[in-house]
Write a structure and sequence with these properties.
Blueprint (H helix, E strand, L loop, with lengths): L3 E6 L4 E6 L2 H29 L3 H45 L7 H4 L18 H33 L1 H7 L13 E4 L2 E4 L6 E4 L2 E4 L5 E3 L4 E8 L6 E8 L2 E11 L6 E2 L4 E5 L9 E8 L2 E3 L11 H11 L8
């Protein structure tokens, strides 16, 4: 039986009996439940948004630490990259220049770092992008330093062989100044004596009487001895090692054989007028790493600064060559 309750009626000024049915109780219960649900959801939302759990605080602290360390590592990588660049510059422009060596090959300085799947295991995290980029920078720098180390090993070997190399560089005139009439033609565009047209002259012409002694300009091994009727005429090619070769042409007599080891200053032949020549002279060439270069830049062992400046001035004068 439902419990009897009373309600005051202000119009009749009497108390009236109230009876609650089961439905009334259900409605009231649902009302209270709705209020509880709303309050609970609001409390959870506020707690999650504005109140962090100890675990969340620790995770946030960890993320902040990782980010700060990544920033620090990248800053250090910037510094190391600058150091590596400076080492490379010194290697190419100073150390290798001292020994007359060519630059370390570019493709060896910048080796590849593998395929696109190399860092696939690092994907799927909020910090994946930063981690992958940092790993790439480390890999690139590692490979650059390894290649630089190999380059320095080559420089070290060159330093160990410095004495041999210095004696091998063609560093004197092939004809002595006391026997030299004059330098007829230097390296560069010159008028050809036969065709009378501008043509690249790839060596230097030293005029001297027939029979004047010709000297090897550096230590080496005679690679070739030829006796042609035209062209260079009687000529000798010496391989000095370290990328250097010299050629001595239009000789009247050759005094050495192919395969012979020669020393700087050793007489290898006599000035002549053989081959395509219009007068007694020695045509002299220097090759470095297969390229013909100006021989005038290598006469530094037996000339004073004043004589060297005078030679460069004569060698640079545009005139007619002797071959």
């Amino acid at each position: 039986m439902a419990k009897v309750k009373y309600r005051y009626n202000s119009r009749t000024l009497t108390y009236e009996k109230l009876k609650f049915t089961a439905g009334d109780y259900i409605k009231l219960g649902l009302k209270y439940m709705a209020i509880i649900v709303v309050v609970s959801v609001a409390s959870i939302y506020i707690f999650n948004r504005y109140v962090q759990s100890p675990k969340e605080i620790e995770l946030k602290r960890e993320l902040t630490f990782v980010k700060s360390q990544l920033d620090y590592i990248n800053s250090e990588l910037d510094t190391l990259s600058l150091v590596a660049t400076d080492l490379r510059r010194q290697d190419d422009e100073v150390y290798r220049s001292i020994f007359g060596a060519s630059r370390y090959p570019e493709h060896l300085r910048k080796p590849g770092i593998g395929g696109a799947d190399r860092y696939s295991n690092l994907n799927g995290y909020a910090s994946s992008g930063d981690i992958i980029e940092t790993r790439k920078r480390v890999s690139i720098l590692q490979r650059q330093l390894v290649s630089q180390s190999r380059s320095f090993e080559e420089v070290y070997e060159m330093a160990e062989n410095k004495t041999e190399m210095l004696m091998s560089i063609p560093a004197i005139q092939p004809v002595s100044n006391k026997d030299l009439t004059y330098i007829a033609s230097g390296f560069g565009m010159r008028i050809h004596p036969i065709y009378k047209i501008p043509k690249m002259h790839t060596g230097m012409d030293f005029t001297a009487p027939v029979g004047t002694e010709i000297y090897a300009t550096g230590d080496g091994v005679v690679r070739e001895v030829e006796k042609e009727g035209g062209g260079y005429g009687y000529h000798v090619t010496i391989n000095h090692g370290f990328g250097y070769e010299t050629l001595y042409a239009h000789m009247s007599k050759i005094l050495i054989k192919a395969g012979t080891k020669v020393k700087r200053g050793q007489v290898i032949g006599l000035v002549g007028n053989t081959g395509s020549s219009v007068g007694p002279h020695l045509h002299y060439e220097v090759k470095k790493d297969g390229n013909k270069v100006n021989p005038a830049y290598y006469f530094f062992n037996d000339l004073s600064p004043e004589q060297y400046d005078e030679l460069l001035e004569k060698a640079s004068t545009a005139n007619q060559s002797f071959d």
